[in-house]
Design brief:
- An 8-stranded parallel β-barrel has the order 1-2-3-4-5-6-7-8, surrounded by 5 helices.
- Helix 5 packs across helix 7 (137-149).
- It has helices at 14-25, 45-51, 78-83, 94-98, 104-117, 129-133, 137-149, 180-194, 215-219, 236-252; strands at residues 2-7, 34-39, 58-61, 88-91, 120-125, 160-163, 204-207, 226-229.
- It has a single domain, classed as Alpha-Beta Barrel (TIM Barrel).
- It is globular.
- By secondary structure, it is α/β, with parallel strands linked by helices.
- The chain binds 2-phosphoglycolic acid (PGA).
- 2-phosphoglycolic acid (PGA) is lined by residues 7, 164, 169-170, 175, 207-210, 228-232.
- Belongs to the triosephosphate isomerase family.
- It holds the Pfam family TIM.
- It is an enzyme of class 5 (isomerase).
């Protein structure tokens, strides 16, 4: 099983989201071989979930609150996301950590909130350019994993990890990806680390400037269980060929 997760961030309008979702819904793929999920804006989440009914495409939230209910202006709980039909939620995306100031404790509580309501969290981890310059990649990833997972009892719905080097994430649609070989060796390292926290197999996805041209080179690596695609997933002309390439790979394998 390989995963294609599409994080639409705040790139497109509600109308563009509906149109793109319609096009994605018509793509044929084998749900036993490919797990496809879209993370749209909250504003169209329920609508898009309904639109995907029967298509095998899941939806996820880009963020959740760590509290379940109460006086939290502007926040959306994991429960509300679940109620809207989400199967997944991104937790600890670097844009949440570095732009909106979320800390390790927030990330941990959000994972617990997802577990409480049966959402599968996608824990995003990744080092910055500065971490790389200071040779602190492993230190950063270790810290992010430990603070999020230590002592946690993992429910059946499980969790997913997305390795997203911050330096590889596209800014305004342009970025420099981590090479598949480098991503593969980091994934190997992450999987070894994860063994401390759970005996279950945890899918580890790569994210950071994945596009139509490079998607296959990631998906063909055995330690890369899938990809989390940002900007290239927000336009039909790049996302549909990307899906087609991933589907062809499944058919041929
Ligand atoms: P990108 O974003 O594909 O635009 O680099 C990936 C992500 O941040 O999830």
């Amino acid at each position: 099983m390989k995963y294609i997760f599409a994080n639409w961030k705040m790139y497109i309008t509600a109308e563009e989201s509906r149109k793109l979702a319609h096009e994605v819904a018509t793509c044929s793929f084998d749900p036993q071989a490919l797990s496809l999920a879209i993370f749209p804006s909250m504003i169209v989440l329920s609508e898009i979930e309904r639109l995907f009914e029967g298509s095998g495409v899941a939806v996820g939230a880009q963020n959740v609150a760590w509290s379940h209910q109460g006086a939290y202006t502007g926040a959306v709980s994991a429960f509300l996301c679940k109620e809207a039909g989400c199967r997944y939620a991104l937790v600890g995306h670097s844009e949440r950590r570095y732009i909106f100031g979320e800390n390790h404790e927030d990330v941990r509580k959000k994972i617990e909130a997802c577990f409480d309501v049966g959402l599968t969290p996608v824990l995003c981890i990744g080092e910055t350019k500065e971490d790389m310059e200071e040779k602190k990649r492993e230190y950063r990833l270790k810290k992010q994993l430990m603070s999020a997972l230590e002592g946690l009892s993992v429910p059946k719905s499980g969790f997913i990890v997305a390795y997203e080097p911050v330096w590889a994430i596209a800014q305004s649609g342009i970025g420099t990806p981590c090479t598949p070989a480098e991503a593969e060796s980091v994934h190997q390292w992450i999987k070894a680390e994860l063994a401390q926290y759970t005996t279950d197999a945890v899918p580890v996805l790569y994210g950071g400037s994945v596009d139509t041209n490079n998607v296959v080179s990631y998906l063909t690596r055995s330690t890369i269980d899938g990809v989390l695609v940002g900007s290239a997933s927000t336009r039909a002309e790049s996302f549909l060929p990307l899906l087609k390439a991933a589907t062809a790979l499944q058919i041929n394998s």
